Amino acid sequence: MYRILLIFLATLVCSVAEANTQQTVNEICKQTIDIKFCNGILAKATSPSLKDLLNVTVTEAQRISDDTYFFISTILLNAGNQRPVVQKCVDAYAVLNSSFTDALSLFNSGRYAEIITLMVNISSEDVICETDFNVPGYNINPMIEKNRETKVFVAMEKIIGHMVSS
Ligand SMILES: *[C@@H]1O[C@H](CO)[C@@H](O)[C@H](O)[C@H]1NC(C)=O
Ligand SMILES: *[C@@H]1O[C@H](CO)[C@@H](O)[C@H](O)[C@H]1NC(C)=O
Ligand SMILES: *[C@@H]1O[C@H](CO)[C@@H](O)[C@H](O)[C@H]1NC(C)=O
């Protein structure tokens, strides 16, 4: 009887913790423009602590901006007469890759509040590069999605950075 009660209590505690985590994640993600993408990133966290949610966010933001910067740089090589507009996207992602890399080092040094300043400092011009150019092999310019994901990462780092440092 006692053991059953213990199991029951343990299950209850676990499901309450899980519900709280999901509530925190929902709270964060509904403040971004892509709830599904945000949820997918936070689902990769190793624990539901805010610090681990921030960890997975800064880690994934850096990884994806690095990939995107590499990708758009290769598009520039054969951009032809689209070169000026592609170059602007390359420049934007050079800045973003460096900002997200800085955010990752700030996280690793426990300087969470500075991540917020860094993200606030990213201008919308950096986040939204013009996408009216063709990318060979794609019907829809993949940079449209990358720009949206970047905006979500900037928002997530601001929101979770604020939660961790307050
Ligand atoms: C962040 O996450 C990585 C990978 O899960 C882990 O190795 C690292 O220790 C974490 N850093 C902190 C400060 O929690
Ligand atoms: C993004 O930034 C990191 C850190 O500075 C750098 O190592 C990496 O090469 C950059 N990515 C690209 C595609 O240049
Ligand atoms: C914010 O942006 C300004 C102007 O671009 C720059 O001088 C400053 O160093 C930036 N601050 C941070 C914390 O990135």
From TrEMBL:
SMART domains: PMEI. Residues 1-19 form the signal peptide. It comes from the Eukaryota. Residues 20-160 form the Pectinesterase inhibitor domain. GO terms for molecular function: enzyme inhibitor activity. Pfam families: PMEI. Keywords: Disulfide bond, Signal. PANTHER family: PECTINESTERASE INHIBITOR DOMAIN-CONTAINING PROTEIN, PECTINESTERASE INHIBITOR-LIKE. NCBIfam families: PME_inhib. Belongs to the PMEI family. This is Pectinesterase inhibitor domain-containing protein. It comes from Brassica carinata (Ethiopian mustard).
